[in-house]
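Before drawing any conclusions, I needed to go through one protein's amino acid sequence and its backbone structure tokens, quoted below without any editing.
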Amino acid sequence: MRMLVLGAGQQGSACAYDLLANTDHEVVIADIAVDNLPPFLQPHLGGRLTAVRLDANDRQAVRDTMEGVAAVMSAFPYYFNLGMAVAAVDSGAHFCDLGGNTEIVLQQKALHERARAQGVSVIADCGLAPGMVNILAEYGIKRLDNVRAVRIKVGGLPQNPEPPLNYQIVYSIEGVLDYYTTLSWVLRDGKPLQVKALSEIEALDFPGVGELEAFHTAGGLSTMAQRYEGKIPTMEYKTLRYPGHAKTMEAIRDLGLLDLDPVDVKGEAVRPRDLFIAVAGPRLRKDPRTSPDLVALRVEVEGDKDGKATMLRWDLHDRFDAAAGVTAMMRTTGYSLAITGEMQAAGEIEPGVWTPDESMPAPAYIDALAKRNIVIVEQQLSPAAAR
């Protein structure tokens, strides 16, 4: 069986590595540049791994590359997701992506009947957040008799934070800035509404990590706020960072330094965000071997079970894999994408277009993560004790 991974960046490379380590499938990794694959992939080239140069804007080349593959896992930037999903469905291949943009996910949903007719599944938002967190949230919702609140918190962080932001880039800086400048969907009194990113900061003491702060950012709920309108009173997604990060980024944003509209700089039209990325990006991008990362995740579902107030909580604390040279963000995001594609190729997902919370079997998914030493700890608490 042949599997296609789109994107040879951090997450695509991690996805390909996981498929090679945990399946016997042939793997193709495709991107505009594939000459500098990470060291952990190099030994596999010429064996079960093939690297193919592919321009995502070349529609015919995309379809040719998808020909005959069982499943496509896309780690391309989110704005390619709709086109890649269409091409995969038309090629008769299962498809999943890292998502992150709810409007595009809703457009992908329009392919549902087309995918069913082809006998393939499409799953958007299959990384860490959105992705893993949504599967856990849905697992909790299904296990309670009624649900009052769903609260999701997750972040990729440096193990050794350095000022001024106490943060380092663990995936695309463009993606981070999108989340900091886009309105975030929540449920309040059962109604979907959008709140400003970086707002409603709350403190959290996370076991094994220490004091963190949580604040709203976009994308993490996927379409859950719309799915559970009028059914669950409160639902929200927040990003975790070290204390002080949100206020600093809010000041940078409110000064206009993350704006996309060009301004005149000595006769040149310059987008402020492009300048910020050019200046700050290199300072925030670290070598994980000398500045390792971690991922902290908490999902809480609060309601009633058998007449008693109950909270189900899932915690994850994952760290850089020094032996393989794979970051915690790559493990939790890229591996999640690979697990999804593997389940699709095995015929475990019903044909159609889904989000992970609608389609992924949580126990099997959690077990698959545990086999990769990504351990999710579940607790059942009383809401009062949890606070």
User: Anything to note?
Assistant: The chain has a mean pLDDT of 96. The first strand starts at residue 2 and ends at 6. The domain at 132-328+373-386 is CATH 3.30.360.10 (Dihydrodipicolinate Reductase; domain 2). The CA atoms of residues 5 and 29 lie 5 Å apart.
